[in-house]
Amino acid sequence: MRNYELMILFDPNLQDEEKKALLDKIRQTITANKGAIIKTDEWGRRKLAYEIKKFQEALYVLIDFELEPDNIANLESSIKFEEKILRYLLVLGSNKVLKPQPKQPQEKQ
C-alpha cells in the first residue's frame, strides 16, 4: 500500500451535514477498496487564490490515507462527478516520517 494525500475544496455554501455526508462517501470509497484512513484534517473556510466557479472562498479538507495504486482510479472517479467539490488534488505522500534536524552551530568568520 502507498500513502496518499487528498486535498478537497468544497462549495463554501455547504451545510455541515452535506459536507459530512460527502466526506463519509469518500472515506467509504477508500475503505471499500481495502484502504485505510490515516488522518482527516478539516481546515475550514479559506480564501481562494483565484475565483473557482464564481466562488472566492472554499471549505478545505485534507485526508491522509493508504491505498493500493490500482484502486486510485475508483476514488478519483467518485470525486470527479460531485458538483459540490470545486477542486481536488491527489498526491503521493511520503512513506517516511520527517524528523526535524538539530541546528548546527554556525562558525564565526
What does this 3D model show about the protein?
- The chain has a single domain (9-92), classed as 2-Layer Sandwich (Alpha-Beta Plaits).
- Helix content is 24%, strand content 43%.
- It has 2 helices and 4 strands; from the N terminus they run βαββαβ.
- It has helices at 16-32, 72-80, and strands spanning 2-10, 36-52, 55-67, 85-92.
- It has a 4-stranded antiparallel sheet.
- The N and C termini lie far apart (50 Å).
- The model has no long low-confidence stretch (mean pLDDT 87).
CATH architecture: 2-Layer Sandwich
Spatial ordering of strands, largest sheet: 2-3-1-4
Number of helical elements: 2
CATH top level is: Alpha Beta
N to C succession of SSEs: EHEEHE
Tell me how many strands there are.
4
Write the SSE topology.
Blueprint: E1 2-10, H1 16-32, E2 36-52, E3 55-67, H2 72-80, E4 85-92
Antiparallel strand pairs: 1-3, 1-4, 2-3
What's the quick description here?
With 109 residues, the protein is of the alpha+beta class. Helices cover 24% and strands 43% of the residues.
Based on the model shown, name its key terms:
alpha+beta; 109 residues; four-stranded antiparallel beta sheet; globular; 24% helix; single chain
